[in-house]
Amino acid sequence: MLQKNYNRKWVLKMGKFNPGTLSIILILLYVPGIKASAQEVGEKDTTRIVMGSKADEYRSQSLTGDALSALIDKDYPNSIPIPGTNIRFKIGGFIKTDFLFDLNYIGDRSEFVTGTIPVEGSPEAQMGGQTTFHAKESRISFDFRSRSKKGIPMRAFVDLDFFGSEDPYSYNLRLRNAAITIGRLLIGQNWETVMDLNALPTTIDFEVDDAIVFGRTVQIRWEQDAGKHFKWAVALENPAASIDNPYNLEGQVLQYLPNTVARITWNHRIGHMQLAALGTQLRWVSDSLGTSTAPGIGFNYSGSLKFAEYDRFMWTVAYGKGWGRNVAGLGGAGSDAVLDEDGTLQTFPVLNITAGIEHYWLSNLATTLAFGWAELSSPDNRSPEAQELAATYHINLRWSVIHNFILGIEYMGGKQRIAEGSEGFAQRIQLAARLNFN
Fold first, then answer.
1. Which residues lie below 8 Å from residue 171, measured CB to CB, with a gap of 6+?
2. Which residue numbers in the chain have pLDDT < 70?
3. DSSP symbols for 333-400
4. Which residues does 372 contact at the CB level (< 8 Å), separation at least 6?
5. Segment holding 24, helix H or strand E
6. Among the four residues 9, 242, 333, 374, which has the most C-beta atoms within 10 Å?
7. Hey, what long-range contacts does 222-225 have (CB within 8 A, 24 or more apart)?
8. CATH of the domain at 289
């Protein structure tokens, strides 16, 4: 799609490149002022974008209301009508093979998870790197769309991948999304409402960025337009808690109230901004010590700014207390609260910042540079091996050789720190080949 719409086709004449031509291209790409696209952010289904932007791909999985209504009937790309009904369906997804070369030991051989980087002085830190080839990110989806007799758009969407096992060579199916949409109402497993799908950098690594607010959960969500540029959403989501139990107290996590989430998004041709808030109740139940509860709350401010033709800058700033589980890299054991000796829950603050830039050198050649940093303030009684810092950086080059066939290379580095103060650092180089069949 980008290749057809790109308004500088002469750039594709690779054989005529010279320093003067390159200078003109760079000037055109970064000319002062913002050159915006013709459509508003979030108002189109861009699952066929040539370079496979993760923001566009994930956003298309959460369409509601007018955005969904505009992509039913014959306007639903590559869809097939079911005879005798008004339902159209599409089988989507891709085949992706990854070639991972670890320069240092990393416990997760399928994705770059900072929590699996060994800290200095541990036996694993001396083991060195390794090589892993796998195809676990390959995906298949089933998308059904129709209208009710009153014209209300309806959708049933199911999405699966092969990350059902931690073993890099075990290809067990895993359910990613399974949701129904009726007009502006979404019910089922989908991306968490507090997330900003428009601010995700496109990485070759499956983990994206360990510092982003990230997750999928079962929910009931209502999304509504508010004027030309604003949209809001509210949701009730499945509760979960990650509680550290350093004293091995008898008891268990029993969540009682659903998470409550709200967000407001400003969309414009130059980009977008989003502010989201999540409230939860953490709950620990013990026969001997009784029940202990504590509130958790988090705020996620994020956005993107378009410049040149398809280039954009993305950012996230999030802060919360008792919600570390919602941050990708800090979602391990005990990231929400810690139990004191008397069974009282103690929450702690979490701050995370991400930034990324995506630049298209040509209509079929793009680069992403992304950085993320997330840290929580551990209380003194937290388990010594519990993670309290996750930081990563990614830089890649992605080339759409022919339509829907993409090759890429990415270099990434990551750091973690645990509560007792030890740190670990690791690097990885990843090559990938992907064929979309949307």
1. 135, 136, 162, 164, 165
2. 1-53
3. TTSSEEE-TTS-EEE-EEEEEEEEEEEEEETTEEEEEEEEEEEE---TTS-TT-EEEEEEEEEEEEEE
4. 209, 210, 211, 212, 329, 352, 353, 354, 355, 390, 391, 392, 393
5. helix 19-29
6. 374
7. 222/184, 222/185, 222/186, 223/64, 223/65, 223/184, 223/186, 224/65, 224/184, 225/65, 225/66
8. 2.40.160.10
CB 150 within 8 A of CB 93: no
Domain interval for residue 233: 2-436
The CA distance from 131 to 103, in Å, is 9
Question: What pLDDT score does 25 carry?
Answer: 36
pLDDT given at position 196:
95
The structure tokens listed for 353 are 């910042």
Distance of CA 274 to the CA centre of its chain: 15
Do 187 and 217 touch, CB atoms closer than 8 A? no
Specify which residues 405 forms β-bridges with.
402, 435
Give the DSSP H/E element, type plus range, for residue 168.
Answer: none
The two three-digit tokens of residue 377, written as one number: 């303030």
Which residues are CB-contacts of 45 (< 8 A; sequence separation ≥ 6)? 60, 63, 67, 71, 76, 77
CA distance 403 to 406: 8
CA-CA distance, 121 to 105, in Å (whole number)?
A: 13
Query: What's the chain's length in residues?
Result: 438
Tell me what pLDDT residue 127 has.
93
Q: Which amino acid is at 91?
A: I
Rounded to a whole number of angstroms, the distance between the first and last alpha carbons of the chain is 13
Which two structure tokens, joined as six digits, stand for 407?
Answer: 């090759």
* Domain count for the chain: 1
How far is it, in rounded angstroms, from Cα 29 to Cα 361? 9
pLDDT at 1: 40
Tell me the C-alpha distance between 75 and 311, whole Å: 26
Q: Could you tell me which of 191, 162, 149, 169 has the C-alpha nearest to residue 63?
A: 191
- The pLDDT of residue 52 is 56
CA distances from 276 to 83, 290, 320 (A): 42, 33, 11
**Residue found by looking up tokens 């929580």 in the block:** 376
pTM recorded for the entire structure: 0.85
